[in-house]
Backbone:
């Protein structure tokens, strides 16, 4: 059982998020302002935050930044804003995932499951073996196998894959990936990243246009699907 | 009346000039007779006569009076001062030479003097003219509409020619005609509406200058008939003023056009913002409805209730798609200003589109064929995803679960083709030409009570066209419909 904090000024949306989480056996605290949210985050052991960006008192993105100053609890943004740059801004500020309203409850619950799995494996520093579907990735031995067969990756391809796998389930923005792999970020480099992603996908996926593992969030970034 | 006044003025002017000439001559002769009495020599007499001619030239206008004065001086000199006195005869023939010299020198002095006076007058006239032109230009520059230009030009021209002229402003489109007249008391402009037909009979009785303001608007300036024979200088002045009026009119039209364009864009932006705000605000209630319906459909036991609730869920899904389409549309409309095309990998676009459209229909299988090499195409990724979602949803709606849907992508020279094909009901031939029309919903589906995707296909077309591409719909020979569009691989720019 986890304790969720729902920060949302719309009562009905709060209600059904609460309802759906409780149906999975979780507990929820509901608040409608950013100030109340901060108080609760500082005083209680919260497992994850469900955050609406359009709050009456503060901007949701500022709230993410404030929370990230002292805590790395998972934050899922739920917003009616669907502009790519706002998504990217929220993710770069430290949000773990982003759902655009209206969203399906099924998908919402699925994202939460993924997030916790990822959050818990990350805590366990010694995990270096990932098994997802037909894939087997051994980070210690730098080995990737598909259906028991070795797949060869160039060093950069491998680094990107490693980054995605370690953050599986989480949307990584282009900026984040570029900074982690190349140490710098230029808008024009996104193109290079796309080429690398296409190559990785060709090695991993049966049909690159219907990827099983690496999901593209157009205009935002990539996500490694671990279900 | 004015003409009479002019004539009498002229006669008085001539009389004055002649009396100056005669008077000066008489005065000089009397003075000389007095001086001779005191024993002055003849040389002084000649010099004084020349001086008198010079003075005459100074205070009269034109050569003629100087010449008259020269001849008069010579004659009076002959008459009063040479032997035999009081006759025009001379005993000493050398006087003839004196007369000639006297005549010539007075002649030259007088012409020189009047020439000088003439150029001085000309210079001051020119200065006055340029001053007037400057004043006119600056008054016209301050005007901001056509009527004001007309008012100002009538006032200025009336002042300049010292005659109350009048004008007409006509608009043949709405048949409006205005007469502009100067109020004789305070020299303001009086405007009154008049019958369009009166103008033509009026202007033929005047020296009228028509100024074309636009295709339908005219401005007539009416001067009295005798202005037709005005001096070259005035003609020149009038022409320059009319040029000034033309350029002011042009300026006013440019300002008007600019403002019209500005308000047009503002209206467009307002409409767009409104549409976007509404669609945006719809999202939250839609999220509530969908969320509630989804939870209910999972938790209700009785089947009939479950069906009702899943109906609500499906409708909210449909509305969600509509809202997304409207938002997409507002983005392209705005996009003509701000959208930037980026190179996107085609396979990523396809996968996102499938991922998102099968979210609504998770049970459907879609076949995909894309080229092996990575294709990068300049586009707004989100909008093209929207196009594909619309086409896929459309295909899903018109097929049953066991009918195939295929998506293919291929390159053909500089075009990259996208195709969504299904084996469903197809499009009726009647509907084919109109299928991309805005708000067109196929009749068949309307009577079926199904909601159409009318707006969806119109948006597809708008988005594809925005990318300089083209979209086509055809029926397959073996059943079902195919939607196909291409995007240019390289940007032309």
Residues:
């Amino acid at each position: 059982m986890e304790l969720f904090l729902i920060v949302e000024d719309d009562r009905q949306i709060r209600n059904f998020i609460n309802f759906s989480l409780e149906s999975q056996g979780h507990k929820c605290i509901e608040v409608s302002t950013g100030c109340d949210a901060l108080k609760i985050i500082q005083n209680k052991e919260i497992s994850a935050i469900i955050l609406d960006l359009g709050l009456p008192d503060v901007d949701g993105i500022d709230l993410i930044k404030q929370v990230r100053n002292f805590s790395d609890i998972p934050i899922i943004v739920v917003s009616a804003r669907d502009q790519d740059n706002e998504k990217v801004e929220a993710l770069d500020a430290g949000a773990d995932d982003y759902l655009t309203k209206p969203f399906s409850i099924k998908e919402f619950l699925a994202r939460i499951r993924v997030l916790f799995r990822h959050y818990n494996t990350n805590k366990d520093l010694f995990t270096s073996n990932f098994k997802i579907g037909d894939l087997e990735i051994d980070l210690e031995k730098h080995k990737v196998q598909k259906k028991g067969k070795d797949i060869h990756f160039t060093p950069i391809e491998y680094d990107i894959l490693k980054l995605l796998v370690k953050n599986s389930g989480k949307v990584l923005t282009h900026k984040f990936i570029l900074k982690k792999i190349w140490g710098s970020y230029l808008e024009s480099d996104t193109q290079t990243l796309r080429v690398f992603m296409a190559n990785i996908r060709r090695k991993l996926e049966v049909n690159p246009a219907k990827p099983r593992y690496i999901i593209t969030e157009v205009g935002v970034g990539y996500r490694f699907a671990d279900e | 009346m004015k003409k009479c006044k002019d004539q009498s003025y002229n006669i008085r002017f001539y009389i004055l000039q002649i009396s100056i000439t005669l008077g000066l001559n008489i005065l000089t002769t009397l003075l000389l007779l007095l001086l001779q009495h005191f024993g002055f020599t003849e040389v002084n007499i000649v010099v004084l006569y020349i001086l008198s001619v010079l003075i005459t030239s100074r205070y009269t206008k034109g050569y003629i009076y100087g010449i008259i004065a020269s001849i008069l001086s010579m004659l009076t000199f002959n008459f009063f001062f040479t032997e035999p006195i009081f006759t025009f005869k001379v005993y000493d023939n050398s006087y003839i030479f004196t007369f000639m010299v006297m005549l010539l020198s007075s002649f030259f002095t007088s012409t020189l003097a009047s020439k000088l006076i003439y150029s001085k007058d000309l210079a001051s006239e020119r200065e006055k003219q340029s001053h007037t032109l400057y004043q006119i230009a600056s008054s016209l520059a301050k005007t901001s509409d056509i009527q004001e230009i007309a008012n100002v030009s009538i006032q200025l021209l009336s002042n300049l020619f010292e005659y109350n002229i009048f004008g007409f402003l006509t608009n043949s489109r709405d048949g409006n005609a205005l007469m502009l007249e100067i109020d004789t008391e305070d020299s303001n402009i009086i405007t009154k509406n008049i019958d369009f037909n009166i103008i033509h009979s009026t202007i033929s009785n005047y020296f009228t200058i028509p100024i074309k303001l636009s295709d339908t608007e005219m401005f007539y300036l009416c001067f009295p008939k005798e202005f037709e024979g005005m001096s070259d200088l005035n003609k020149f002045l009038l022409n320059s003023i009319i040029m000034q009026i033309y350029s002011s009119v042009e300026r006013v039209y440019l300002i008007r056009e600019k403002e019209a364009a500005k308000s047009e864009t503002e209206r467009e932006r307002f409409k767009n913002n409104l549409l976007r705000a509404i669609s945006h605000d719809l999202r939250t209630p839609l999220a509530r409805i969908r969320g509630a319906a989804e939870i209910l459909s999972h938790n209700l036991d009785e089947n009939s209730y479950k069906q009702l609730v899943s109906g609500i869920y499906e409708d909210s899904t449909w509305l969600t798609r509509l809202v997304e389409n409207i938002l997409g549309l507002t983005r392209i409309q705005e996009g003509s200003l701000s959208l930037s095309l980026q190179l996107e990998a085609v396979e990523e676009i396809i996968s996102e589109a499938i991922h998102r459209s099968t979210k609504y229909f998770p049970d459907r299988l879609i076949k995909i064929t894309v080229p092996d090499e990575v294709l990068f195409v300049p586009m707004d990724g989100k909008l093209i995803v929207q196009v594909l979602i619309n086409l896929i949803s459309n295909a899903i709606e018109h097929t049953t679960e066991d009918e195939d849907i295929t998506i293919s992508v291929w390159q053909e020279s500089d075009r990259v083709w996208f195709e969504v094909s299904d084996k469903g009901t197809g499009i009726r031939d009647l509907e084919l030409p109109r299928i991309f029309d805005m708000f067109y919903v196929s009749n068949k589906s309307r009577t079926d009570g199904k909601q159409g995707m009318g707006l969806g296909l119109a948006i597809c077309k708008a988005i594809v066209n925005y990318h300089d591409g083209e979209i086509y719909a055809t029926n397959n020979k073996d059943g079902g419909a195919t939607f196909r569009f291409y995007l240019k691989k390289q940007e032309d720019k």
